[in-house]
Amino acid sequence: MTAVAEAPSKIGEVPSFTVTLRVLRHLPADDGELAERWDEFQVQAHGTDRVLDALHQVKWEQDGSLTFRRSCAHGVCGSDAMRINGRNRLACKTLLKDLDPSKPITVEPIKGLPVIKDLVVDMEPFFASYREIMPFLITTGNEPTRERLQSAEQRERFDDTTKCILCAACTSSCPVFWTDGQYFGPAAIVNAHRFIFDSRDEGGAQRLEILNDKEGVWRCRTTFNCTEACPRGIQVTKAIQEVKRAMITRAF
Fold first, then answer.
1. What does the DSSP 8-state code read for residue 161?
2. What are phi and psi of 6, to 5 degrees?
3. How far is CA 233 from CA 4, 122, 129, 169, 229, in A?
4. Are 98 and 49 in contact (CB under 8 A)?
5. Distances (CA, A) of 205 to 128, 135, 202, 208, 247
6. Separation CA 165–CA 162 (nearest Å)
7. Where do the 4Fe-4S ferredoxin-type domain residues begin and end (predicted)?
């Protein structure tokens, strides 16, 4: 359906238009399995509305059974990652006007993780890989009596990878992850990078040993899908390459 703008009723009011959402549903069937089907919904929206706003309108006004995750709605929690027009994005950060609303907007669950219902996937395999790289500061000796200090240069070494919000957009955009259920995935490697290059941490060698596994960093094929998908602009592929280099040189 073509998006047709309506004239504003008041001076300065932004005109609205009708947009079509084409949502890939996953609903329980009689045999207990999930049945896939595409449902289309027409919603009245403004160009500055987000895909999340349109999904809310569908759920609240048309079909309360539509299921998706969302929390902060400000691009911080990462819970509403989904495939929008074939690309991984956060629904709360994707404006309708940036998607050509004159054409149907397709919405699907992210790939590579088991679907629970509609747009909701089981995140446990993703978080299992995250936990395996020990995403916490590892130190030895007695607890310090003052803050562990580091220079601005030391902080800059890993600053980019501290931005991760664990939305799984990068990992579920990776072709290797789609086909290999054992691959750690970009997000786990990014979070390992955050600690490997932290001057205060003493567990870098352990993490490198974990990532040296056959399903670790060496499975990366450098397609840059992960970098393009990251809603926080993290240079994911670069971080993975730096971990590979540290693996070889043991310099970190």
1. G
2. -105, 150
3. 33, 24, 22, 11, 8
4. no
5. 20, 14, 8, 5, 9
6. 9
7. 154-176
**pLDDT tens digits for range 184-241:** 999 999 999 999 999 999 999 999 999 998 788 999 999 999 999 999 999 999 999 9
Q: Which of 27, 26, 29, 4 is nearest to 16 (CA)?
A: 4
Residues 6+ apart with CB under 8 A from 240: 186, 189, 190, 193, 217, 220, 222, 226
17-121 folds as Ubiquitin-like (UB roll) (3.10.20)
Q: For the domain bounded by 124-249, which CATH number is listed?
A: 1.10.1060.10
Model pLDDT for residues 18-66, shown as the tens digit of each residue: 999 999 999 988 787 889 999 999 999 998 999 999 999 999 999 999 9
In the chain, what are the domain boundaries? 17-121, 124-249
Amino acid residing at 27? L
CA 239/CA 191 separation, integer angstroms: 10
